[in-house]
Amino acid sequence: MQESTYKLQPFHLAIPVNNLTEAEAFYGDILGCRQGRSSDQWIDWDFFGHQLVTHVAPERVLPPAHNAVDNQQVPVPHFGVVLGMAEWQALAERVRAAGLAFVIEPSIRFQGKPGEQATMFFYDHSGNALEFKAFADLSQLFAN
User: Which residues does residue 53 pair with via DSSP β-bridges, in sequence order?
Assistant: First the structure.
């Protein structure tokens, strides 16, 4: 596998939400993201070291489609981050404690194969699908 030539930098992603109160409850209270700049139409979040912006645009939130991946129905589109295994496990417990339903329960995907990873999927309060991953061996991130 060829090494990446990119120096890892935070990504920026802007997503639609129904309202900012729900966004604050989900991204701030449940996920534990630190809030940055904001207005009455958007909030910047420190999303695990990346910049996520939740913009009020309820007409843009659509139900996701699904694709089969390793015998599970994965919501498309979705976004998320790769965490360390301990962070991933702690987040899974916070999501459970908050009473959120998982689309795909925390589990190991591609077990014993290239790219083996811990993964979980759930929706925010506006229907945006999120995936969080962790690898016992981070070199497997781009394995094929």
Answer: 14, 44
CB contact at 8 A, 14 and 44: no
127: left (phi over 0), alpha (psi -120 to 50) or beta: left
Q: Which tokens hold the place of 57?
A: 């645009």
Amino acid at site 24: E
pLDDT tens profile 67-91: 999 888 998 889 999 999 999 999 9
Domain with 107 in it: what CATH number? Answer: 3.10.180.10
Taking Cα atoms as reference points, which of 138, 71, 139, 143 lies closest to residue 114?
143
**Residue span of the structural domain in which 80 resides:** 12-57+67-140
Three-state secondary-structure class, residue 27: helix
Q: Which two tokens stand for residue 32?
A: 């534990």
CB–CB of 99/86 below 8 Å?
no
Contact 23, 17 (CB under 8 A): yes
* pLDDT score recorded for residue 1: 47
How far, in Å, CA of 105 to CA of 130, rounded?
12
In a domain, 27, yes or no: yes
Cβ atoms of 75 and 64 closer than 8 Å: yes
